[in-house]
UniProtKB/TrEMBL annotation:
InterPro entries: CheY-like_superfamily, LytR-like, LytTR_DNA-bd_dom, Sig_transdc_resp-reg_receiver. Keywords: Phosphoprotein. It comes from the Bacteria. GO terms for molecular function: DNA binding; phosphorelay response regulator activity. The modification 4-aspartylphosphate is found at residue 53. PANTHER family: STAGE 0 SPORULATION PROTEIN A HOMOLOG (PTHR37299:SF1), TRANSCRIPTIONAL REGULATOR-RELATED (PTHR37299). The keyword Protein biosynthesis does not apply. Residues 2-113 form the Response regulatory domain. Residues 141-204 form the HTH LytTR-type domain. This is Two component transcriptional regulator, LytTR family.
């Protein structure tokens, strides 16, 4: 896997690169102090993973990622916790606060590998709808899930994870396409990365919805919508 680092702090770039030396399956594919210098390479030859600072001269990391026609998997590394919501609205895979430690780095790498493994497996996962049941073909196994049993859905870029009480399933297709194929009003979009079945909500606390032990974030653009149906439903 190829990774690129963009950070105006040379020491932080060196730390990331030194940590990656323990992972021989990752290859450095560009190290930049200025995001402007990186735009051409990443627009034409995107890496598998991008480690990206946020506060940088000329262009911040959030706007840089938005500018890419096909953004790669992205891990933000920053001293600013206040940009986390914006980062996850852009489907960031992780958000690490500086100073970067080896343990936190290893957790991010583990998340990267898990995501890529899920993505590869999802290529063989197909789903189709039969009345009120979604049928997921997983290799030689077939899973039948009632739509009413789905707690929530999570977007994984071009894939979607479907959560039930006892298990989660991966299927190929972005969350918008999956919801459209379900063709039912029972699921509510609350974030670019999440849609929920409101009947399973335990509570809503500030910017999070609690379903069982899972916290679902409420995206900035969905707050007013959530407030409206919360008034009529609770």
């Amino acid at each position: 896997m190829r990774y690129t680092v963009i950070d105006d702090n040379e020491m932080d770039r060196m730390i990331i690169e030194s940590f990656f030396k323990q992972h021989l399956d990752f290859e450095l594919f560009g190290s930049f102090s200025d995001p402007i210098e990186a735009i051409h390479q990443l627009s034409n030859y995107p890496p598998d993973v991008l480690f990206l600072d946020i506060e940088m001269p000329n262009l911040n990391g959030i706007d840089f990622l938005r500018s890419l026609p096909k953004p790669p998997l992205c891990v933000f590394i920053t001293s600013h916790p206040e940009f986390a919501l914006d980062a996850f609205e852009l489907f960031a895979l992780d958000y690490i606060l500086k100073p970067l430690t080896l343990d936190r780095f290893e957790a991010a790498v583990s998340r990267i590998k898990s995501f890529i493994d899920i993505r590869e497996k999802a290529l063989s996962y197909e789903h189709y709808l039969e009345d009120d049941t979604v049928i997921i073909q997983e290799g030689y196994n077939t899973h039948r899930i009632l739509l009413s049993e789905i707690l929530y859905l999570e977007a994984l870029k071009d894939y979607t994870r479907i959560f039930t009480k006892n298990k989660s399933y991966i299927t190929l297709g972005n969350i918008s396409r999956i919801l459209e194929s379900f063709n039912t009003p029972q699921f509510k979009r609350v974030h670019r990365s999440f849609a929920i079945n409101p009947r399973y909500i335990n509570s809503i606390i500030e910017n999070n919805i609690l379903i069982g032990t899972n916290q679902i974030p409420i995206g900035k653009t969905y707050k007013s919508t959530v407030s409206e149906w919360k008034k009529s439903s609770f």
